[in-house]
Amino acid sequence: QVQLVESGGGLVQAGGALRLSCSAxxxxxGVYSMAWFRRAPGKEREFVAAILWIDESTYYPDxxxxxxxxxxxxxxxxxxxxxxxxxxxDTAVYYCAAxxxxxxxxxxxxxxxxxxxxxxxxxxx
Length: 125
Description:
By secondary structure, the protein is an all-beta fold. The chain contains no helices and 11 strands. Helix content is 0%, strand content 49%. The mean pLDDT is 93.
């Protein structure tokens, strides 16, 4: 039983920055990877970033590479996403996810077992 809670969303102007956080509770150890996905209005859920807990390997799609940075804090079972150089097209609900299974498909939502309810990021023009 794992619960994830996102925080840090808000309204920013284009070019601005936000830092999102995801805290996990209910299981002290064993997470394999955590990730961020986002869903914009009228669009499919999109992979944003993932991190392997054991070695901090990170993965990003081209749409955010160089602008977003994912990180983790093992001691506190938390994960963060630093968003910089934000664009209006980054506007979406951002969800954190956790997997307790080894998987080579970290960019697929089906690989994740637990999800938060999301936090809204809105980027104005």
